[in-house]
């Protein structure tokens, strides 16, 4: 089968599955990224996220994840919400308004691989959505999806940065897109200037151990650092500040995936209502939500910490 036709087929299936972008890069060792990642880990900027120290070789070499890998397919799925939270409610990152993206995207990746196997032939591959040691943003840039901004997010010149990244690594040879070679951040430093905790450093380096998302989601300690008191800007789960202030997100439009529609309570619950929420009610309301990652005790901790004394 001709490479061009095969590649167009895959991109067509991706669009049918709801992905807003599908780009493909040749599978190769990510030498530059390996050096940057090693330096970042050495500085301890991953905080207590020790899982990032593991499987280093797998992160930078796709052939160790899929033997004989020839192609890395990057897919973007928009999650920008149609509705926003009520003013004054405890703030929640937009990616967590609806259902858990892992459970939404994983079946789509499986379906895409199945279509490839049914229509193209014997194809081996694995799909990843923020669940394995894959440098999704690096591959997205190599597939032409956009550039990595000063806030560490992949930015599309047409769609901003409110989208999920997914990766499908396969042993199928395809036509490859040109890498995105421009950086349109220019002299803008809004994300750096507005970051509440100073987690965004010059030269596109993010101190993950200072990020509000790290404190409110990843950090499992029941006591948050006192030096961060008063700096969370009412963010209860995650943080979107660096994306909200990015000029490129003026191009963001609401996504079409029904599963990402906002849970009403996320939009409307007041601080007092969150404080009075029982654990049983929390589990009922947010059974399929990313909020369950922080668990009930973590959410209560975060609410208490963000409120003034």
From TrEMBL:
TRNA binds at residues 220, 297. The active site is at residue 130. It catalyses: epoxyqueuosine(34) in tRNA + AH2 = queuosine(34) in tRNA + A + H2O. GO terms for molecular function: 4 iron, 4 sulfur cluster binding; cobalamin binding; epoxyqueuosine reductase activity; metal ion binding. It is found in: Cytoplasm. It comes from the Bacteria. Cob(II)alamin binds at residues 59, 130, 151, 154, 165, 213, 239-240. Keywords: 4Fe-4S, Cobalamin, Cobalt, Cytoplasm, Iron, Iron-sulfur, Metal-binding, Oxidoreductase, Queuosine biosynthesis, tRNA processing. GO terms for biological process: tRNA queuosine(34) biosynthetic process. Gene3D superfamilies: 3.30.70.20. Its cofactor is [4Fe-4S] cluster; cob(II)alamin. Residues 176-205 form the 4Fe-4S ferredoxin-type domain. Binds 2 [4Fe-4S] clusters per monomer. Catalyzes the conversion of epoxyqueuosine (oQ) to queuosine (Q), which is a hypermodified base found in the wobble positions of tRNA(Asp), tRNA(Asn), tRNA(His) and tRNA(Tyr). This is Epoxyqueuosine reductase. It comes from Filimonas effusa.
């Amino acid at each position: 089968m001709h490479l061009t036709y095969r590649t167009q087929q895959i991109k067509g299936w991706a669009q049918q599955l709801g992905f807003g972008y599908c780009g493909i890069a040749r599978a190769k060792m990510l030498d530059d990224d390996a050096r940057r990642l090693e330096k970042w880990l050495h500085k301890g900027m991953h905080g207590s996220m020790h899982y990032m120290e593991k499987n280093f070789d797998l992160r930078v070499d796709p052939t160790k994840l899929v033997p004989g890998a020839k192609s890395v397919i990057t897919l973007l799925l928009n999650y920008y919400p149609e509705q926003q939270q009520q003013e004054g409610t405890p703030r929640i990152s937009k990616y967590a308004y609806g259902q858990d993206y892992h459970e939404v995207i994983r079946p789509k990746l499986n379906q895409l691989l199945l279509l490839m196997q049914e229509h193209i032939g014997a194809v081996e591959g694995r799909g990843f959505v923020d669940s394995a040691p894959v440098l999704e943003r690096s591959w997205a840039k190599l597939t032409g999806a956009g550039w990595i901004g000063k806030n560490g997010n992949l930015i599309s010149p047409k769609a901003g940065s409110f989208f999920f990244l997914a990766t499908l690594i396969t042993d199928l040879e395809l036509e490859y897109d040109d890498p995105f070679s421009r950086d349109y951040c220019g002299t803008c430093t809004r994300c750096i200037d507005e970051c509440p905790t100073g987690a965004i450093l010059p030269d596109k380096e993010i101190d993950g151990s200072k990020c509000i998302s790290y404190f409110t989601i990843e950090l499992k300690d029941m006591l948050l650092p006192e030096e961060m008191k008063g700096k969370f800007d009412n963010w209860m789960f995650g943080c979107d500040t660096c994306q909200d202030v990015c000029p490129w997100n003026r191009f963001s439009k609401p996504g079409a995936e029904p599963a990402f529609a906002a849970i009403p309570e996320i939009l409307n619950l007041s601080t007092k209502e969150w404080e009075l929420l029982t654990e049983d009610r929390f589990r009922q309301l947010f059974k399929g939500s990313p909020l369950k990652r922080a668990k009930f005790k973590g959410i209560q901790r975060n609410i208490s910490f963000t409120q003034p004394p």
